[in-house]
Each structure stands twice: as structure tokens, then as C-alpha cells.
Amino acid sequence: MADMVINPDFVEERRRSPMGARYGKIMMWFFIVSDSLTFAGFLVAYGFMRYQSHGTWPIADEVFTHFPFLHGHYPMLYVALMSFILIVSSVTMVLAVDAGHKNEKNRCATWMFLTILGGLVFLLSQAWEWSNFISGSHGAMRLKSDYIALFVDNKNEKIAISDFISDQENDMDELERVRLAFSSNKDLNLRVNNEFIKNEDTAKYFQGAKIVRGANLIENEYGHTTFANFFYFITGFHGVHVFTGVLLNFIIFCNVLLGTFEKSKDYEMVEKVGLYWHFVDLVWVFVFTFFYLI
């Protein structure tokens, strides 16, 4: 039987959908749409819980105040920087796709490398942010009613427990040490549910209270525990997406270096991972808005 000759154009048409796009790209769009709905559900739930917990929700400017290698109060500065890095990585991804369309192997590889680098910097920054959130910065007092009482000065600005507690009474309970140091310093006050409470009116709040430091799934020195739960879950879920994107970009980057796409003159795989990377960046814009700006 004679060998059947298959028309390459016919094969190419079979690989394309009736809309003129390849099925691989359409499947990527299906994934993006479905995953968008997942993130939307998480953020809507977050918004609902925040609305229900009005007054006890942490203030972002008082939570995310750290900056690497610098001591001081820098609200939102590092979060803004890491967000900027992620957005810039989206620009480098666009340039990588453009280089691929022009079959420019070296330029495509360069921009993909910078995209991967931006993703790694973002992941490391997020891990550093998590470590600070977990360890805490000021400490607070969890009341018997489960509300969080923050220590503030006369200007209603947060004060760290380490700034006024004495280390001399090491044999005493920590709460008692805090109570004694607090009551002896009339410049210290409490803030509960955004309500400023003067020092002389705070005695009852120490009854049955507990000192908390940092934020985890059970306790949160910054405010409502649900904030920490949502923060870890949503930013962690997004972080998994970023890590996956970095891994996919690295695989495609290796193929670019090997000349796999240059030989076939088809860089569509770069475009597919580019779609995914833009999606990850866009999702972060909404996560950033919900957690840090609103």
C-alpha cells in the first residue's frame, strides 16, 4: 500500500479551532477564566468577612511596615516595591513574546530570564513578608471578649510592648509585668475596636486577658484572627500560582536556549505561558487592592 501523503496545511488546520486560535491557547483561556472565578470567590468572601468585622479589622498601614535592612516605620513601602517588581516582570514577558514572534532566540531568552528573576524576587519578598507577619512587631493583648487591645501613645500611635516593659521582674507572669509597666506610665493607653481608651480607664481590660505576639491561624496581634486566615490562604494560593509560573517559564526558557522553537519558527508556547503570567500579575493587582489599599 502506497504511503499516504498528508498535507501539512491540513494538519495545521486540524490543530486550530474554528475561531482561528490553536486549542492549546483556548484551553489556557479556559483555565484563566475558571481560576479567575476561584480568586473572585475568595476575595468576595474576604470582603464579606471584613464588612462583618468592621472596627476589629487590622489597618494595613500598621501591619505591613517593615523594609529589609532598614529600621523604622515604612508603611506599605516594601509591599509596593514587590508589587512593582511583579508588574515589571509582566512587561518583560510581553517583550519575550514579541521577540518570539520575530524568531529572535537570544532576545527572547534574555527577557524570559528577567521575567523568571522578577518572579523569584517576588516570591522571596512574600516569604520575608510572611515571616514578619508571623513573628509580629509590637505585641498586643487579647481580651476575655476575644477582642484585641493595642497599646498606643497619646497620639493613638502603636507602641511595642518591648518599649515599655521591664525585664527585671522575670519571675512574674508576662501579663502582670505588662500591666504594672502600663499602669505606671500614664502616656500609655489602649485602642480597642478603634476606640481610644485612656490609661486610667483600662484596669478592667487586663482581667482575663492574654499577651499575643505575631499572627497565626489562632491568634493575631493586629486584630481579627480571620484577617490572618484569609491573608495566608489567598496570598499563599497566589504564591503557588507565581511559583508555578516561574517553573513553567524556566522550562520554556530552557527550550528557547536549546533552539527548540527557533527550529520550528513557532514560539506559541512562549505566548501561552505569557498569558498565564499576565493572569498571575493581574490577580495580584486585586489581591493588593483588597488586602493593602482598601
Automatic annotation (TrEMBL):
Keyword Transmembrane: yes
Homology family: Belongs to the cytochrome c oxidase subunit 3 family.
Compartment list: Cell membrane
This protein's UniProt keywords: Cell membrane, Membrane, Transmembrane, Transmembrane helix
Domain of life of the organism encoding this protein: Bacteria
Any one of the GO CC terms: plasma membrane
Main location: membrane
Protein's name according to its UniProt entry: Cytochrome c oxidase subunit III
Domain Heme-copper oxidase subunit III family profile: 1-294
Annotated transmembrane regions: 26-48, 76-97, 109-128, 230-261, 273-293
Annotated membrane topology: Multi-pass membrane protein
GO molecular function: cytochrome-c oxidase activity
Phylogenetic lineage: Bacteria, Pseudomonadati, Bacteroidota, Flavobacteriia, Flavobacteriales
Record-level GO BP terms: aerobic electron transport chain
Alphabetized Gene3D superfamilies for the sequence: Cytochrome c oxidase, subunit III, four-helix bundle
PROSITE patterns named in the record: COX3
InterPro entries (alphabetical): Cyt_c/ubiquinol_Oxase_su3 (IPR024791), Cyt_c_oxidase-like_su3 (IPR000298), Cyt_c_oxidase_su3-like_sf (IPR035973), Cyt_c_oxidase_su3_a-hlx (IPR013833)
Pfam family, one: COX3
